[in-house]
Amino acid sequence: MEKKRKIEVFKYNENWTRKFREEVNSLKGILGEIAVNFHHIGSTAIPGIKAKPIIDIVVEVRDLEAVDQLNKVFSEKGYIPLGENGIVGRRFFIKGSRVERTHHIHIFLEENQEVERHIIFRDYMIAHPDEAEKYSKLKDELAQKHTYDVEEYINGKNQFIRDIDEKAEKWWNERI
To answer: Could you tell me which InterPro entries the record lists for this protein (predicted)?
Structure first.
């Protein structure tokens, strides 16, 4: 019987930033000149909120086809290549196993809209700690309610994330 992924959120950990930087060094070794930018995204990039201890990294690259040619190298370094995995134009890798993972690597062609959306969400949440706290509480409640149901945990966050994306985009555009 396959072990199920357990959804647990933990208090913010300052080591998450260090783990991001360490992983970027590893990714630079794999991607070399293809890589343009690396961004720490997701809840582990938002100080003060609870998160699953999985570091989300967005990588902007010059050439997605070149990334596809590196799947074997990624596998040898402990990553599982999952292709687009539901988002057109993305290459998605998990580090570890499907059950016990430490990192999510989202690779996009540079200047992809998805990259900007993630960065704007992160920056908005950092600038609005009251919204970040609401998100933290929601994640905690969902993790307790859906401890072994990843889909329901994700579905429970969807509307909140859509609402924040809308507010964040408006906030971002007003700043420019």
So the answer is: GrpB/CoaE, NT_sf
pTM of the model: 0.94
CATH fit for domain 15-175, picks 1.10.3720.10, 3.90.1150.10, 3.30.460.10, 3.30.420.40 = 3.30.460.10
Enumerate helices (H) and strands (E) in the chain, giving the number of each: 6, 5
Domain residue ranges in the chain: 15-175
Whole-angstrom distance, CA of residue 97 vs CA of residue 140: 23
* Spatial separation of the C-alpha atoms in residues 122 and 56, rounded to whole Å: 11
- Dihedral over Cα of 148, 122, 48, 13: its sign: positive
Which single residue is written with the structure tokens 């990039």? 45
pLDDT tens per residue across span 103-158? 999 999 999 999 999 999 999 999 999 999 999 999 999 999 999 999 999 999 99
